[in-house]
Amino acid sequence: MIKNILSTAILAAAGVALSASSAMAQNPNYAPGDIVLFFQQFGGSNTVALNVGAATTFRDTTSNILNIANIGAQLSNGTTGFGASWYDSTSLWWGAAGVFNNSTSSSTVTNGDPGRTLYVSRNRNLVGTEGTASSTPWSVGSNTDMTTVANGIIGQNNRMETQSVTAILVEPTSTSNIDQQNLFNISGTPTNSFSVLASGGVQGDFGAGSFGSFGGLTAEGALDLYRILAVNPSGTVETGTVRAGQFQGTFVIEQDGDLSYIVTPVPEPATMVAGLALGAVATLTRRRRRGQTAANAA
């Protein structure tokens, strides 16, 4: 379960000393197909990444996943992060990406996904409605482009496996593949990701004020997650239009660094109260009818 992977103890153990080590054993907190969230600052010295777990978890969930992890300590660190007011920084961006492998086979399926199935984010434009996209779906032009993106994500996310033993990775921008795969233009706005995904890449921005109320949370940022199939092999249950983004849900982050994933609307408090009241009335009515039936029978 994601919460077990990203336990408080694991997050507390994450540090630059571990991240900077050049030769480490395989990270028990990372596996191919995991989604890595990353935070990147134009002109900044460091990049922060967080492994949130298997992409298929976010593909398959039908309910919101709240408090996946808290990354506030890492983001607010003034030396290795982005400062106490990171959520108001106009130069800070974040994104998400995951892929299982770069196989071009049309028959190999892993956990319902054929090879090169991409999971990539896109900045959510408006608060809108939970469970509905508020961004332009990704569309990838060719199989060659799918392979290019897959290779880029693998190169980026494998740093989590080789340079950390926790679910957190903090790296200098000079060595981070995140910064090499997600480029800025001269004014500090992301231009593309993984050489193919243009128009801002997979990243969303922060800035003064919150994004808004979303999923019952006060969000500082929101990213729509898309799944992109390279092929549609026979027999897999997870089908879709090839090379067209399928909306999965939305990652949101709060000011304290709490991260959640929203796939369905949260009822308004008044609606919830009304629903409870109606349920109570229905139950009472059924009890009365049963009592009347028993009395008549006697």
Describe this structure as you would to a colleague:
The protein is of the alpha+beta class and 298 residues long. It has two domains: 265 residues, no CATH class; 30 residues. Helix content is 27%, strand content 28%. The strands form three sheets. Strands 1, 2, 3, 4, 7, 8, 11, 12, 13, 14 and 15 form an eleven-stranded antiparallel β-sheet that branches. The N terminus and C terminus are likely disordered.
In short:
With 298 residues, this protein is an alpha+beta fold.
Please identify the structural class as seen in this structure: alpha+beta
| Average pLDDT metric | 84
Total number of strands? 15
Q: Span from first to last CA?
A: 55 Å
Largest sheet: 11 strands, antiparallel
Number of helices: 8
Hey, roughly how much beta strand do the residues contain?
25-35%
Using the CA coordinates, give the radius of gyration: 22 Å
Helix content: 25-40%
Low-confidence stretches: 1-24, 270-298
Tally of domains: 2
Elements, N to C (H/E): HHHEEHEHEEEEHEHEEEEEEEH
Q: What best-fitting shape do the alpha-carbon axes yield?
A: globular
Jot down its keywords.
alpha+beta; disordered C terminus; 27% helix; 11-stranded antiparallel beta sheet; single chain; 2 domains; 298 residues; disordered N terminus
